[in-house]
Design a protein that fits this description.
Largest sheet: none
Radius of gyration: 36 Å
Order of helices and strands: HHHHH
Number of helices: 5
Strand content: under 5%
């Protein structure tokens, strides 16, 4: 009986050892398979994220390029209107005002439609820039529409004209440079270039 018990015990121990080794191998295989599946899922997620991010960055770059183009067009049309220089053969101040107002409107609409692609700090700067450009342009433009100006109105018109020209020489170019630096930073370039 003792020998039989010993044989059964040895047989069971051998069987259990064998079953444990099989279980360990199966467990390791399942763990390796799960680990590999997780790695693959993470790689797929990383690639999807990278593609999504690159498309967003590409769209943001397109928006910034078009926005900057419109900003420059609005700036130059407005500066041309506010300029104290008038040359023969050029459009009149009234015609320049219409062009400046339209380019500012187009710039503002494009900005409003695409502001979701820009950080809030840029949106704030652009809002300020638009106000800084529009204000002197509109102020001076209002005086152009007065058909029978008085001496007081003419003096106010000249004052508005001078302030508009000064804004385009001092304040507005600084705001524009700050925006350019921010655009470069967003696009991944150095803000100092």
């Amino acid at each position: 009986v003792a020998v039989f018990a010993y044989l059964v015990k040895s047989l069971l121990a051998h069987r259990l050892t064998k079953d444990i080794k099989v279980f360990e191998v199966e467990l390791k295989a399942k763990a390796d398979a799960s680990m590999e599946q997780l790695k693959n899922e993470l790689q797929v997620a990383a690639i999807e994220h990278q593609v999504r991010f690159s498309k967003l960055h590409e769209k943001r770059g397109e928006v910034i390029a078009e926005l900057y183009k419109r900003l420059v067009e609005a700036f130059w049309a407005s500066q041309r209107f506010a300029s104290p220089m008038e040359w023969a053969g050029e459009p009149t101040k009234a015609e320049n005002y219409v062009e400046a107002a339209e380019s500012l409107r187009q710039f503002f609409i494009y900005f409003e439609v695409n502001r979701v692609y820009l950080p809030e700090s840029i949106c704030t700067q652009l809002d300020r820039f638009i106000a800084d450009v529009r204000s002197p342009v509109i102020r001076f433009g209002v005086y152009l529409r007065i058909e029978h100006p008085t001496d007081k109105t003419l003096n106010a018109k000249m004052d508005a004209w001078i302030k508009a020209a000064e804004a385009f020489e001092k304040d507005i170019p600084q705001a524009r440079r700050a925006l350019e630096a921010e655009f470069r930073r967003i696009l991944g370039g150095s803000a100092e270039t």
